[in-house]
Protein: DUF262 domain-containing protein
Amino acid sequence: MKGEVKPLLDIIDGKNKILEIPVYQRNYDWGRENIEKMFQDLLGMAQTGKKSHFFGSIVTQTEDGQEVIVIDGQQRLTSVTLLLLALRTHFLLAGNQMRADEIYETYLYNKFSDKNSHFKLKPIKRDLEHYKKLYESPEDFERPSNMTTNYEYFFNAISTMSITFDGLLHAIEKLDVMQLSLQSDDDPQLIFESINSTGLDLTDADKVRNLLLMNEDYSKQTEYFERYWSPIEQKSQYDVTPLIKYWLTNKLGRVPNNNRIYFDFKYYIQRYSDKRELFEELLMYANNYEMILSCSSEDAEINAIMRRDSYLQITSQYPFYLGFLADVKAGKLRLADFKDVLLITENYLFRRTIVEVPTNALNKIFATLHRDVMRRLKPEYNYVSVLAAILKHKADSGRFPDDVEFKEKLGERDIYRLKPGVRSFLFERLENYNHKEVVDVFEGLEQKKLSIEHIMPQTLNAQWKQELGQDYLDVYRQYINSLGNLTLTGYNPEMQNFSFERKKMFYMNSHLGITREIVQYDHWNREEIENRTSELTERMLSIFPSLHTDYHDPIQTHDLQPFDPNFEYTGKKIVGYTFQTDAYRSKTVWKDMLIEVVSDLYDEYPEQINNLVIQDATGKGSMLTNAFKSQQEEGYSELRDGVYLNTSTSTWMKMHTLMQLFDFLHVSYDDLQFQLGDSHSDERDAVR
Structure:
């Protein structure tokens, strides 16, 4: 790689030169803040007479002497090109044809080459058409488009600037960059990662796209981009990073840290020998992700469930859904079961929301939930039965709230001050459950055609104080925002704080069932509010029922707890464990458990563990460096011929060896579950 500081325009200038932005690059996405700073810097240079201004680095690779591939720096190059185009337009409008032609033929147009329609800059396909339109009439500009937006900013800024057109052109000529020219033996991907190691500008999706496309030849880049990556972006609503995170979650059995998504992806895909197979899988995930985001399955009931669940504003369950749908595609499961999977998940999430169970456990639960179900699945039980059993037996922060807790919280909570989406969800279910003539409550509330109505109004007048009785103030304070005192209406402004009798006239004519029901009450006071609250909570219990299943979970009968590296196992007694299967294994010695688990891992990951045996895998300070030997030594137990594991260690060391081995192999901690007995203080446990 050769580096040289030179004027940026020297990179653009040149007969028949084409500056090509490869398809693996992201869209042109410099925003107002970026281009405004660039323009103000140029004005400052012109006003102060500064001789030069360093404008960052640009990494290029020359293909045929004329075609320059821009590995890094496209945002700068594209922005300067848009500024030159805007300046050229002003020269034309001012009648200075010579200056306009100078800019056009030197920096924008290849007169003697018909490549890229003669244009010097060749953005990626999505931007190229928008860029070409800027040479036409403003009426033909593409909108919305970042190309168009930034060009128009430059055009308007030039109109009001305090320097001359020539002064601006001279300032642009003083922009210096460090051009890093790659040689034939340079690896563009490694250089790109080094330059962008801070990750401040690129999303994980940008880095993944570059990783998958950069080192391919141009024809393969174009094919992979158009056939796979571009559709993946479209189906992900141009936010691919969450999809990658969900895909990784299913593969790893854990939620990758946000600052590790790219690195986990890069490591995991080493097991794919065929890149096309990886792209096909990602595209399949994107198809299913699009169905979830846009609620666009072929089943109207499934779409209705997904749409209303979006108002709960919880996405932790997406990896679970995507894992299920992936196995539908693989022929292992039936799409017909997806409706019930959605309903059980909806029930679980809504009950937890009402009961206010902390949400921090959800990511971990859903990261392994599909895998947990599939491990237990047998011909005599369907997926839904197993799922219900697993969720029913969750405890503590992962629990499925029971009827008593759910009903109590519905009666106690300030329903009016729930998050708007959750509140809309609640009233939509009360209104539409088991009804064929569905009212679009969500749209009505969003467009303010409907609103949440306080039957006992928020401002009490004399009539209402008399209606509520002598303890009206206590009734007001206790029940104003309770479930029983709320309904839906389209006549809130008209009713104001009318008396209950006058409000009933509006309720009687309502097309909303939940509101018409109120007409049955003759009065509205403490007793009626409590009765209606009780009635609605009972209805909610029928809408969101307890989980019932005929599946008996053999794993749950052993009171197992997931492997937790932060838990102190020293002094604890193991009774048994499960690992990645239904089979429960009785073991009373930590050493025996360690040997069996690592043996199972060897069966699945022989190459990686063999690398550890020959000291060829981990970095400095890892316990794994000395965990394996190729020959028998004191304290080492034989796993396979030529593979020996250090088992003469403390319980603490055994568990940390497992932790590091799981991390190294990207195995979920939850795959290993222990049944612990009474604690003991037998020091011999230190080496057992």
Summary: Residues 407 and 577 are 36 Å apart (CA to CA). The chain has 30 helices and 15 strands. Residues 616-621, 681-687 have pLDDT under 50 and may be disordered.
